[in-house]
Write a structure and sequence with these properties.
Blueprint (H helix, E strand, L loop, with lengths): L1 H12 L1 E9 L16 H13 L6 E2 L8 E11 L5 H9 L6 E9 L10 E11 L12 E3 L5 H8 L4 E4 L14 E12 L2 E8 L6 H13 L7 H8 L14 E8 L1
Parallel strand pairs: 3-10, 5-6
Antiparallel strand pairs: 1-3, 1-4, 2-3, 5-9, 5-10, 7-8, 8-9
Helix pairs in contact: 4-5
């Protein structure tokens, strides 16, 4: 009888906590737990379990690839802890390595799921465009020494805005029911030698942003005419698109829940 009462008490006290997470992905094999190296998800599970004295399994909103960074990835977990949800970020940051930080923690509805809600995701891809690499930005940008015309990249990118079949812009082994996605905005900016592509959408396929960047870069370097991007899009053939840009230049900036 005592055991049953205890289980019921726990069930009533269970809460769901949302984390907003920033990390430098340089030394991690992406978000999702795997056999070939340490991941962000693995570290969070371990440190949360130690902190709360429970077997914690986080559910992430975006399974970023090996080497990709984040300023605003989102994850949730369920817990019986008496620690206020908004205080968990402070306690957890004391245990995390320096390249992972919780920017915010709060309680959310029990049925909130970070991957099954309507969202707008924002990514940035950075290119250091100069004669020589800059060692201070090498972990967070792709180095390109060719002259880059960002106006041509913008012209090409405009063909990708809207709802399209992005099969040409994803890795062939992507296991999804549909390769149709909606990109709501792509724009470029330049500050000094740093070029930044900002891309927003309701969802992205595996490697989609990096392949888009690799393709648009060919336009910027004069290898493709901007209108050729529409032909690549219509082909629905990965072989027609440009190369996948390096992971280091990509950052998940944030996820807006609608």
């Amino acid at each position: 009888m005592f055991l049953n009462s205890y289980v019921k008490y726990n069930e009533e006290e269970m809460i769901r906590v949302k984390l907003v997470i920033a990390y430098d992905g340089t030394h991690y094999c992406g978000w999702q737990i795997q056999d070939n190296g340490i991941t962000i998800e693995e570290v969070l599970n371990k440190k949360l379990s130690e902190l709360l004295g429970e077997d914690i399994k986080v559910i992430g909103a975006s399974r970023t690839d090996s080497g990709v960074h984040a300023m605003g990835n989102v994850a949730v977990f369920d817990t019986n802890t008496r620690i206020p949800a908004e205080k968990i970020s402070f306690a957890l940051n004391q245990r995390l390595p320096d390249d992972i930080r919780i920017r915010n923690s709060c309680q959310v509805a029990d049925d909130f799921h970070p991957r099954f809600c309507d969202t707008i995701k924002t990514y940035e891809y950075k290119i250091w465009n100069d004669r020589f690499p800059n060692p201070l930005v090498r972990l967070y940008s792709k180095f390109v020494y060719y002259n880059i015309d960002i106006d041509k990249m913008q012209e090409a990118a405009n063909y990708l805005i809207g709802e399209h079949d992005f099969k040409s812009f994803c890795t062939p082994r992507t296991q999804v029911e549909s390769t149709v996605r909606t990109v709501t905005d792509i724009h470029f900016s330049k500050e000094g030698n740093m070029i930044t592509m900002t891309i927003k959408g309701t969802g992205f396929l595996y490697n989609m942003v990096r392949i888009i960047m690799g393709t648009l870069l060919k336009c910027g370097m004069g290898m493709y005419e901007p209108e050729h991007v529409k032909e690549i899009l219509d082909a629905c053939d990965r072989a027609k698109a440009g190369p996948k840009a390096e992971a280091c230049g990509l950052t998940l900036v944030g996820i807006e829940y609608l």
